[in-house]
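Teaching note: in complex prediction, the entire set of molecules is handled at once rather than each chain in isolation. The prompt given to students was simply: 'Predict the structure of this complex.' The entities are:
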Amino acid sequence: MRIDGISKAFGDHPVLHNISLSVPKGSIHGIIGKSGAGKTTLIRIAGLLEKPDSGSVWYEGIAAPVHLLRGRELLEARRKAGFVFQSFNLFASRSAAENVAFALEAAGWPRAKIRGRVAELLELVGLSDKADRPAMHLSGGEKQRVAIARALANHPAILFSDEATSALDPETTRSVLDLIRSLRQMLGLTVIMVTHQMEVVRRTCDTVSVIEDGNFVEEGLVAELFANPRSDAAKAFLKEDRND
Amino acid sequence: MTDALKLLIQPLGQTIVMILASTLLATMFGGALGILLFALSNDHFAGGRRGSLIAKHVADRVINMLRSFPYVILMVLVLPLSRLIVGTSLGTTASIVPLSIAAIPFLARIVESSLSEVDSGVIDAAISCAASKRRIVFAILIPEALPSLVSGLTLTMISLLGYSAMAGVIGGGGLGDLAIRYGYQRFRGDVMAVAVIAIIVLVELIQFAGTALANRIRSSR
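The expected output is the structure of the full assembly:
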């Protein structure tokens, strides 16, 4: 996954300035920043939920810049990328299993195969016993697990996580982060996580970018950032983390 | 009183036919129009484009115009259309045409607003599942908005019941016509009472069924 020189403004309010990022296959990259720093806009552009004003987005195995794709090709590219959200965004009209099934229905899977794949996915996230629960009857952690299963349904290469654990309590946060790490191991996923919590980065990520006012102010290995933060923003996050 | 009840049978049937038929037509056309209105103003669908802005603007004007017509006037104005569509401009069948025309923009607005109320995060999730626009509308948005759509349809049916009371003007019959012609013009207080009570009972039944259905959908979630 690579983005090249992404800029984006809403009206005359610039949000991202010429941002580039390359994440190697199979690694977990964190993007940490305060609210309003542009991190959600960035991940939405990288995850094909929004279009950049300039710059390009590339996925491995697709020759063209994916942000320019349309129609069927755009849907194919989206299948390479799963997306999980802070507010889970499950479909209230569907059960846990039906939420996961939606991604398969959309990809044209035959009904008979959907059932088996959904069972497999729910097992992967540890929710086999809750398959028929209406989505809104699940706890926060369970909802996010269903959302992860739904995001992984079509064997994506990349998982985008936009503050996926911000609405969860500390214990559930840890279990969801551990799940993401183990899924990376098992499936060889590339993971891009946006967060405002240093704990998420420390626990989960290999590399990290610190974003402030639409610019990356620091990038590198997580261990390096913790040992020797250079930017003021990184120092502030580390200080906050120690105080927690 | 038995006489009054006997008089009730045919108009009651006419009212029910008018409401059911026009509700069905309004659901088909108003539903489609409502989806179109929603799509024209939602960024993931057709929103934000110049053509969409113009189309939405035109549709808004036409819908507002239709909705601001007093129903009695609308009914008379569409007489030629009724003759064209159902071959007659008189009677119960003919009155289904203006009723549907009044209900289509009403229901379209309700569908538009129900669909717009679906959390944009849910639409994002459906988009990231690589679903086509059509699938997002029919497999996600409509089911998500269903309780609100059912409430809106209930509201539409009750409005239609009110409008159908004026069907007598073009010989459409129905309960309103019975109340006016027998009850008011022939001084038959008992017929008037029976007709009005029948209308009240119909409103209550529609409201009860609609509320029960919407609640049932909500509680299964």
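Point out the following to students. The mean pLDDT of chain A is 96. The beta strands of chain A are 2-10, 13-22, 28-32, 54-58, 81-84, 158-162, 190-195, 207-212, 215-221.
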